[in-house]
Structure prediction request, 193 residues.
Amino acid sequence: GCRHLHPALDALAAILEKAPLTAAQVERITVGTYRAAVDTEIHQLKSRGDAYFNLSYAMAARIVLGHNDYDAFAEEHFTNPRILALMPRIRVAVEPQIDALYPKKRGALVELQTVAGGGLRKEILIARGEPENPLPDAFTRHKFRKAAADCLIEGEQAEIEAVLADDCSLDTSALFTGLTRILTNTQGSKHAA
Prediction:
């Protein structure tokens, strides 16, 4: 599923951080990964779920849109001419050395060739978000704020963040009690009638 996309997307993000490129500057991209990621690819995009299983789409969307968040997988982007033009220039194949590490490590090797003739390469063996490579707190907070923006007011978001920040000192029961209290208090929230 979508977890198979993450090592390749992390590698692409690292490449783009060093050398910001537009789709027009990309000659081709080769993604070498493990067999399960290749075998579960869905090539015809009909829904968001299909896009979560399509490395070519995810890579092209990252370059064209500049992000790979929830919005990047919205069906409205499936007809974006810049994404559609870039997708055929992205090849996904099994990379034997990375495949040999699966399932202990789910990695990818991304090689990007530019129109100008340059080449960039990045290998990621453990994607961000795995226990061995946890997401930074700032990333998690940003993702939470973006996901909660339509259903919680700012104060509720801050209150939930405060409860979660204390989760190391709270037992599970106290954590759920605190979150339940905030989420069931609909006064002032965006979801109140």
User: Anything to note?
Assistant: Residues 113 and 119 are 5 Å apart (CA to CA).
